[in-house]
Design goal:
Elements (H helix, E strand, L loop, with lengths): L1 H18 L30 H6 L3 H16 L5 E2 L1 H8 L8 H13 L3 E5 L2 E2 L10 E4 L1
Antiparallel strand pairs: 1-4, 2-3, 2-4
The protein binds zinc ion (ZN).
C-alpha cells in the first residue's frame, strides 16, 4: 500500500513538472529541454547551451529581428520571405555568414508570436525544422 502511494506521488510530481516545462532559449529560440540539474533553478534558465549563453544577444541579432519584421510588413498578408533576404538587408557583404544568426532571430520572433516558420506552405516547429525555411507574419 505504501509502495503504491509512493508511485502515485512520483507520477504526479513528474506530470506537474512537465506542465511548467516549456521554455525557449533566449538566443537560438529552440525549445529548452528540462534537465534534472535544473530542478531548483528552472525559473532562471535562459539559454539552451553554453555556446548560446556565451554568444547572448548582440546588436546584430536585434537588427536581424527588425529586418525580418520590416520585410514582412512590406509584403502583403500571407506572403513569405526567405531568411536570406533579412540577412542581406542587414549585412549586404558576407550575409551568408549570418544565416544561422538569422534563423535564430526568426525562431525568437516565433516565440514572441510575431511570425511563423513555414516549409512547403505548412507551419513547422522551429525547434526541429530542418532544411530551407520561409518566414510569414502571423
Ligand atoms: Zn540556444
Amino acid at each position: 500500500m505504501l509502495l503504491h502511494d509512493d508511485l502515485a506521488c512520483t507520477t504526479m510530481a513528474r506530470s506537474s513538472t512537465s506542465a511548467a516545462e516549456v521554455k525557449w532559449c533566449a538566443r537560438c529560440g529552440r525549445e529548452i529541454e528540462w534537465r534534472k540539474k535544473w530542478e531548483r533553478s528552472w525559473d532562471s534558465v535562459k539559454w539552451c547551451s553554453t555556446s548560446c549563453r556565451q554568444r547572448g544577444i548582440t546588436d546584430l541579432d536585434r537588427r536581424l529581428e527588425q529586418s525580418i519584421i520590416d520585410l514582412l510588413k512590406r509584403r502583403s498578408g500571407s506572403a513569405t520571405i526567405c531568411p536570406s533576404e533579412a540577412a542581406r538587408a542587414v549585412q549586404p557583404d558576407g550575409w551568408e555568414n549570418f544565416m544561422e544568426d538569422t534563423r535564430c532571430a526568426a525562431r525568437r520572433l516565433v516565440v514572441k508570436g510575431l511570425i511563423e516558420i513555414v516549409q512547403k506552405g505548412s507551419v513547422v516547429d522551429p525547434s526541429t525544422a530542418k532544411g530551407p525555411i520561409r518566414l510569414r507574419a502571423c
